[in-house]
Amino acid sequence: MGMEAELELKRLVFQLLLTTENRTTDFLELITGETMIPCVLKQVTATQTPLLAVKEGVRDAVLRESLLRAGKSGLVVSQNIAVMYPDFIPLPIHLKLAQKKEGIGKIMRDLNIRSTRTILDFGWKKPEHTTDLNGNPYPVTFAQNPAVPYKQYTITFEEFTTPGLHLLEYFNPRMLEGKEVRAGRTRDLF
Questions:
Q1: Closest CA to 167 of 87, 78, 98, 91
Q2: Tens digits of residue pLDDT in 31-86
Q3: Distance between CA atoms of 20 and 24, rounded to whole angstroms?
Q4: Could you give the C-alpha distances from 14 to 78, 150, 156, in angstroms and in order?
Q5: In angstroms, rounded to a whole number, what is the distance separating the alpha carbons of residues 139 and 131?
Q6: What stretch of H or E contains 186?
Q7: Torsions phi, psi of 8, nearest 5?
Q8: Using one digit for the tens of pLDDT, what is the confidence trace for 1-29?
Q9: What is the pLDDT at residue 145?
Q10: Where is 15: in which H helix or E strand?
Q11: Residue 58 CB-density burial (10 A; 0-12 exposed, 13-18 middle, 19+ buried)
C-alpha cells in the first residue's frame, strides 16, 4: 500500500472513531490491537454545573477524569472527562464506577446493559484550545501534537429517558504510528 493510501486509511479510521455510536473502548482495542487499561485520575462530586442540562433540575453529579493506556505498549491512547448522573445510571454500573478500577466502556461491555449514545460534537482541536465540559482550558497528555481529535457525547441507559453520562474524550493522534492499517485490522510493524 502506498504512503498516500495509508494516510487516507488512517484518516478514515479516525473519522470512524470520532463518529461511531458504539463503545469507544471496543473500537480503540480493535484499531490498536491492544487491551485498554484505565487509569482514573480523579473522581469527585461535581462542584460546577456541567454542560448537560437535566430537565428535572440540578441533580447529583460525579466528575471522573481518566486515561486509557494500551496494555502492551503503555501508550496513552485517550484522555477522558465524564460527568456521571447516578440517578440515571443503572445501579450495577454505578457500583462498579464507584470502585474506580475499570473503564466505563469495559463495565458496560461486561454487564451487557443496553444504552444509546448521542454525539454532540467531534473534530480536531489544537492542544491550546482543548477544554473541559464547561469550556474551561484543559491540558491534554499528548499536547505535543499539532492537533488532537476529540468526541463529546451522552449515554442514555435503556431504562431511563435522561442521559446518565456526558463524556468528552481526547484521542492520541499517534496511536496508529508504527501500525500498518489494512481493511478490517491493524498490525504492528515491528
A1: 78
A2: 889 999 999 999 988 755 554 545 555 567 889 999 999 999 999 999 999 999 98
A3: 8
A4: 13, 10, 24
A5: 7
A6: strand 185-188
A7: -65, -40
A8: 667 777 788 888 899 999 988 888 888 99
A9: 85
A10: helix 3-19
A11: exposed
The total number of residues shown for the chain amounts to 190
Q: In sequence order, which ranges of 38-144 are alpha helices (DSSP H)? A: 91-98, 104-111
Cell of 182: 489494512
Task: Say how many C-beta atoms besides its own lie within 10 A of residue 24's C-beta.
Answer: 25
Amino acid 108 reads M
Half-sphere exposure of 104 (CA within 13 A, CB side): 30
Cα 143 to Cα 159: distance, rounded to the nearest angstrom: 39
Collapse the DSSP code of 122 into the 3-class scheme (helix H, G, I; strand E, B; otherwise coil) and give the result: strand
Q: Which amino acid is at 110?
A: D
Q: Residue holding cell 445501579?
A: 91
**97 residue type, one letter:** L
Hey, how many other C-beta atoms are within 10 angstroms of the C-beta on 185?
11
